[in-house]
Amino acid sequence: MAQQEELSVGKAESRDPLTKEIDLVDRDPKQINQEVVKVDFEDVIAEPDGTYSFDGVWKASNTTFTVSKYWCYRILSGALGVPLALLWGFLFACVSFCHIWGAVPCIKSYLIEIQCCGRCYALCIRTFCDPLFEAAGRICSDVRVALRKERAKD
What we know:
It contains 3 helices and no strands. By secondary structure, it is mostly helical. The longest helix is centred in the middle third of the chain and has 86 residues. It is flat and about 95 Å long.
């Protein structure tokens, strides 16, 4: 009995997002930024044939671009990562709150009310319009149309 309680507690804890392990190797497991921010030196700077700088300048430019991009990202993420994570966490919490406590109940209420209105509308259509259309169909059921081509007189 005690083992079953421990297993159920262990399962509940594994579902808790606050105790979930973070993968420090694969930081984009769902690949949401795979195509967006993958920018290398060759994607931004290129010299066409016949217009080459010195080899040393090209190598230094490549190294400068790569290192500055790396350190600028690290400095910005170090300085702004936690505050922006707090901001995005707050924003998504507000969106979730509005969706759970506002949007879904309104939509469910609307669907319940519109279902009642739809039944009343269908009843009115079946009561008043169906007999009229059935009568019009019986009246027009014996109508025959014949098309003839007439030659024009010159």
